[in-house]
Amino acid sequence: MNKELSREERADALGGMGCKRKRVEDARFTQGKGNYVDDIKLPGMLQGDFVRSPYAHAKIVSIDASAALALDGVIAVLTAEDLAPLGLHWMPTLAGDKQMVLADGKVLFQGQEVAFVVAKDRYIAADAVELVEVEYEELPVLTDPFAAMESDVVLREDLLGEGGSLPDGAHGPRKHHNHIFTWEVGEKDATEQVLQEADVVAEEMVYYHRTHPCPLETCGCVASMDKVNGKLTLHGTFQAPHAIRTVVSLISGIEEHNIRVISPDIGGGFGNKVGAYPGYVCSVVASIVTGVPVKWVEDRMENLMTTAFARDYWMKGKISATKEGKITGLWCHTTADHGGFDACADPTKFPAGFMNICTGSYDIPTAYLAVDGVYTNKAPGGVSYRCSFRVTEAAYFIERMIEILAIELNMDAAELRRINFIKKEQFPYQSALGWEYDSGDYHTAWDKALKAVDYDGLRAEQAQRVEDFKAGKTRKLMGIGLTHFTEIVGAGPVKNCDILGLGMFDSCEIRIHPTGSAIARLGTISQGQGHATTFAQILATEIGLPADSITIEEGDTDTAPYGLGTYGSRSTPVAGAATAMAGRKIRAKAQMIAAYLLEVHDDDVEFDVDRFVVKGAPEKFKTMKEIAFAAYNQAIPGIEPGLEAVSYYDPPNMTYPFGAYVCVMDIDVDTGVTEIRRFYALDDCGTRINPMIIEGQVHGGLTEALAVALGQEIAYDDMGNVKTGTLMDFFLPTAWEVPNYETDHTVTPSPHHPIGAKGVGESPHVGGVPCFSNAVNDAFRAFGLRHTHMPHDHWRIWKTANGLGLHG
Ligand code: CDP
Predict the structure, then answer these.
(1) What is the residue extent of each domain of the chain?
(2) Active site includes 219?
(3) 132: buried, middle or exposed (CB in 10 Å: 19+, 13-18, 0-12)?
């Protein structure tokens, strides 16, 4: 039948790369057939719940669990004392620090885990939590990292050496007992010299507030220790199941082959589900002790107050330029608030992640970055909330600094960007802070974006609006937010990037069945990104079998090849590459089989969409389906039966997606209410696998960007109480707040990726946050505003307007 189809029709029938294939996952999700951790119910399963500290800094004087243990249905109450003999009262963090599993003599943040109650059901566990009596002795609280660096109060006595000395931390020398590390990149003296000699220097403190990834599904697990065969099965909301298996093995002493980690369906991760939490350790211990499965699933408040936060970077910046606007230097000192333990999820050599991408899309010849990590009485974390290891902070920093420099130069901010962009012919581009950007065409993207929104027309309208405002004809100002961002996604390479010593490669294993369908297993795990749809598309194009005939499986460490998981938009750059490479191995073997069947030399056949054809004789061919069958059916001299391949891919470089965004916003000066009139997002993620999924990723990322820029915040009072611990206070946008997004693209393939693809999941978040923020700031530029901090909620905007004297 295939013979009658044209080449294009055969390609279309595969549903391969470039087509808007519908998400195969959605039939399950939209019909309530998803299988999340909380859906897992094992025979005899118990439930765990935490007693948590109401104080942000306190000594634990005593814990009395007798009343809780007396409650019918309570099986056990674990404290640090119970875990200590097993060496499990503390656990290693991803950042080389250690963290208390259960409070060991003191607590360092509100909501910290103090005791773990195990009971027959969730309600009994919750009641028992109330009955555990803990006596605390309050200690002085430090919520400000600058004050923490000056304070006599010691947060981490466990890190003091003899006589109060300060041994080195995981990332080198420490300056103060509340200091974690200093990380420096670039040329300090040269940058300071450039700043001194510059025509113009713009200086600003840019604070990126603390926020939280807040996935719809909170974190949780079900630990099940089978004492008969010695096997531990751990279902959990893990973004990196293999890494969790290795960590559990290392800290529990259970051999790795006896641990099976399964990430079932995951309801959003955004970085929140990368790290290891005390709930996992306590559930495992409780299951080992009781001999039955134990489930722990946190509630919304626990998720917001205690699991990994994002951002909290104070970025002091200086940027210099000539009178004409050519940037000459960039200097940045960041004070990073890491909370009570350093549990940041970054590759080992990068304690501040990829913050050194902060030169952005610009050709900046000289730069210097220093980051100081500091302990405070806040929750630990520091994860990449929909970004690649602090790239969001970097993009926000440089895109605000560019706007402030434009004010200083009295220049149009779009033009300032244009004259400083790295030029197309400069790629691969070596940045002053150490990265090699793989490819880009920033001018084309920028021109396309400005044309699409009629940028000159918008500026004219804005100028008129300012006149009308001054004349009392309107109370609404208009802001034009601009952003051109460059992302860095796809960690590895292994030589630079590891987490806890595990190199950041990824993997794909393919098995072609005799009838020409297939299963591919990967080391990644989808949390809503649609991997089951898109990875099958890569394979369809690479091996010539229909995407609908290829099952994608992730998240089970007993079956999937070892991989470092999904976060930092690494799935496409790393596992996507592994998939293409494994597909090519299949193709190479298929070529030999085809040549044998067609009775020609291997070199005389070539791949053509879904078949191998004899060169120069296209009527002689074998389809991939026929080849698959032959692989299992015929004895082919010199070739093993079967058609399988595995690829472990260590990327030679990161990929550098980029984008040009414009936001048009009206602001009511009297209420502080913002209205987004237009949002145009042009993304370049290289080769596009599924344009529909990309569009969905962009919509989602922009919506989370809107949330962060306009209100989403984890705020603390001076006592270290979390003020935004519920969704009543923590802004999670709904359809009501979300504007219409206009999406667009250019395509600049990555030269080193097998299919030229770069990541995209995080780009809209990375570019969106500065774009929304720049729109707010820009609205007030004509009235003398240089910079106002996020989040730009109505109250803060009202105060900004008031501070500028706009309320009369
Ligand atoms: O690692 P994560 O899956 O979060 O991010 P990603 O690699 O950026 O991919 C997000 C989704 O977009 C996946 O389903 C990808 O296959 C898809 N994608 C695409 O269709 N084309 C690209 N060039 C990049 C990603």
Answers:
(1) 7-34+506-649, 37-139+218-266+273-306, 310-491+654-803
(2) no
(3) buried
